[in-house]
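hiii, so i know i said id send this last week but things got crazy w the move. better late than never?? heres the sequnce for the chain we talked about at the cafe, plus the structure i predicted for it. fair warning i was half asleep when i ran it
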Amino acid sequence: MDKTNINEQAVLLATQPVPQHVAVIMDGNGRWAKSRGLPRVAGHRKGVERVRDMVTACVEKGVQYLTLFAFSSENWRRPMQEVQLLMELFLTALDNEVKKLHKNNVRFRVIGDTERFGEKITSRILQAETLTRDNTAMTLIIAANYGGRWDIAQACAELARRAMSGEIDPQSITEESLEPFLSLAGVPEPDLFIRSGGEQRVSNFLLWQLAYTEMYFTPVLWPEFDRTQFEQALVSYAGRQRRFGLTGEQIETARHA
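okay and structure toks below
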């Protein structure tokens, strides 16, 4: 990238709104490791370093929420050895990285069906969330044993229970009725979705919440997704017109009203 393009990007980033909420599928750890003759877990460890860099960049840019798809409900189908290593890596991150997050005033949350992780991990998750719950610089949300369909189903189940108990009139149920029971209740929907690694799909991630999110797909593998790559994603976002079902003319009229 030449100096002129870099300067143009800097101006665009300085003058355009930053996404309030960024959601990321961190794809490519295994392929990165394989291309270097390393075990897959080496790619996951390198991926943790990128998470650390991403959090720092988001805080500096003013992003308020960063949601990372760390472990899907489908990932249990992977080889048992890899799953065990991922659980060990998760524990290590909970022990080490959360302290750094707290020091930097970052709140830590986990969404997903965490009961399957067992008492040791769920206990560490609770400790981490309790430790950081009053932090205000940014909120880092880790989606672990999470699936978008699971999220919608569990919210519907809770809504059904309340309807059966008489707390809610079934005839009055709307989209807004469901949202308080979703995993990201109280959090603004993602403005920007990033997927590294070249695949162009959402893979059962935040299916409800991504309805109007701007998508950014890159072939760059997650262990190589550095600050420069993130800024390119922000530049792409800044150059888009978010319509939410309206026409471009309506958006421009509202902007200049």
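btw The mean pLDDT is 90. thought thatd interest u
miss u guys!!
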